[in-house]
Amino acid sequence: MKPFLSVCELRSGYAGGVVLNGVDLDLDAGGVVAVLGRNGVGKTTLISTIMGFVRPYEGSVTLDGREIAGARVDVIARAGVGIVPQGRRVFAPLTVAEHLAIAAGRRAQGPWTRARVLELLPRLGERLGHRGDQLSGGEQQMLAIARALLGNPRLLLLDEPSDGLAPAVVAQVGEVVREVCAEGMSVVLVEQNLRLAFSVAQDVAVMQKGRIVHRTSCAEFQSRPDDRRRLLGVD
Fold first, then answer.
1. Residue 133 needs a FRET pair 20 to 30 A away by CA distance; which of 1, 106, 140, 207 works?
2. Distance between CA 115 and CA 109 in Å, rounded?
3. How far apart are CA 163 and CA 149, in angstroms?
């Protein structure tokens, strides 16, 4: 059976410079792969290239057999890809309700409605009238996740969702990932927080210098501290 997401020999970068230098990555439907690596190895560029924010120089990205490499962002979104970008990127003057209304206006058919999102993330229901710049970092992250879910993606790209968040909010992010995967959504998780990554992912893919250099199960990676020290510089 072919993987749901297949990235093959992907090369991309900025202003002619190469950041991704032949990335190969695959993911089955309903699976979670954690993309790990030190700062500057190309993890965010990988997410951005899959989503269409960065155009590839070479290579292939297929989603459920459909080639999406080099397509416009809106075409990739309609194909079933959603993103929670690093830094949340909520709009400061818009209220939570306005953010959700804009996202819902572009939603594809699927189980994630405004009511369902607010059931999963009840804090947002309490903050509907608050502007983006009145939210805490954790609330902004929940809003970014809600906005992505309202598009009813089949593949969700999460870029450093734990960045700057309190442990309780990080745990809530993990609960959300488990919930969406239980319903068949696939997730590519770029993350520095190994506890979060190990709690939700089945596999890890470690990047170095723009390539995937190590791919294994989470259980195997957790059991090999020498590999973690060698590849990530952590125990």
1. 106
2. 14
3. 19
* pLDDT exceeds cutoff 80 at 106: no
Strand partners, 67: 62
The pair of structure tokens assigned to 131 is 């502007």
Tell me the pLDDT tens digit for each residue of 169-191.
999 999 999 999 999 999 999 99
Tokens describing residue 20? 């991704």
- Residue 38: per-residue pLDDT: 94
pLDDT digits (tens, 9 = 90+) for 187-203: 999 999 999 999 999 99
Backbone angles phi, psi at 164, to 5 degrees: 75, 10
Exposure of 97 in the CB half-sphere (CA atoms within 13 A) = 6
What are the backbone dihedrals phi and psi of residue 11, each rounded to the nearest 5 degrees, phi first? Answer: -125, 130
Encoded tokens for 231: 């590849």
Phi, psi of 62 (to 5 degrees): -115, 140
Beta-carbon neighbour count of residue 109 at 10 Å?
5
Tell me the helix, strand and coil percentages in the chain, rounded to 5.
40, 30, 35
